[in-house]
Specification:
It contains 14 helices and twelve strands. The chain is an alpha/beta fold. The protein has two domains: about 5-15 and about 260-385, Aspartate Aminotransferase, domain 1, CATH 3.90.1150; about 15-260, Type I PLP-dependent aspartate aminotransferase-like (Major domain) (Aspartate Aminotransferase, domain 2, 3-Layer(aba) Sandwich). It is globular, with a radius of gyration of 22 Å.
Amino acid sequence: MKGPVYLDHNATTPLRSEVRERLLAELDALGGNPSSVHSAGRRARAVVDAARARVAAALGVAEQECVFTSGGTEANNLALFGALRRHAPPAGLVTSAIEHSSVLEPAAQLEQEGFAVCRIAPDREGRLAAQAVLEAAADPACRLVSIMAANNEVGSTAPLGVIGAGLRAATGGHRPLLHTDASQALGRLPVDLAGWGVDLASFSAHKIGGPLGVGLLVRRRGAPLAPLLAGGGQEAGLRAGTENAPALSAAALAVELAVNDLDTYRERVGKQTAALWALLAEAVPGTRLLGPAINAPDRLPNPLAVLLPGARRQLLVARLDLEGVAVSAGSACASGSIEPSHVLTAMGCTEDEARGALRISLGRETSPEQTRRAVDILRRTAAAPTPTQEARPQ
């Protein structure tokens, strides 16, 4: 029997073999609390410090700017709540309508607390206009701009360099902080935090072959931020809690590998994704690609958001799973929901379209044979009658 075909890398990626080996080795070697002063604690502290140094070098930032968290969600929450709650309402936030829920839900909570929130709508391909962001950020009440580097569903990328330059050029002494959720960008496009002009950037290890439960917030030196958690002085007082030294060491290796493999990944996976789209468009006539065109320079190399004619998203995902193919019905954090994708509705899709789209995302180990098999299964699955059609009298 043929093995499974995993095409949901934007939800999570399999643990890289090198990273697994590092994690297991550190789990065997370490047993102390990094905050303890005895030898076991000092060994664990040395591992945490080394992980921070390696991550900082890979991302081109200072070690003091790296704050380890439990994941991208916590990093986003720390950025939004930590930056905004230093101010009194109605201090403002500018974000987009296509952010991950770990940005949109904190934004909604801040709005309930009296903070002003402006959500910029994308165009029909999921792109954001830098000018619209800058015009909204010109409001003197604005204290934070949060724009994701790359969208997890349709793969569109944001003009962060233009936004950052525009914010830096603002006159009158008003310059809100710029945050980006770069969880989907790392390892898939060049991450240039200095060139983008960001003050805060969130990352997640499990998106790049690292362990689950490890995230990172890069905080530019001098960027004011209030902690979310109390109860310890870890992470320069910004993130209380005992550091998971083995997982941090493994995550640091995953970051290094993702940065080093970037060019190879983009070329190989980009070709695989284009080939998959060509095969699928031919095999299932009427299939629509949602988001930027497959050869657009401002898109991630690995995802396909597609709408198969007459398809019911949840049923398709279940049928594909039975055939051994793992795809997503939108954002992984919401894929169990029957609600339409907020990203697709913001792009102008109808609710039926937003409910019917599939997200297919390739990874570094996806093979041409796997993509061909996935297309064949998609063709047969899309052609199969739905339960309603099966019950309809002939």
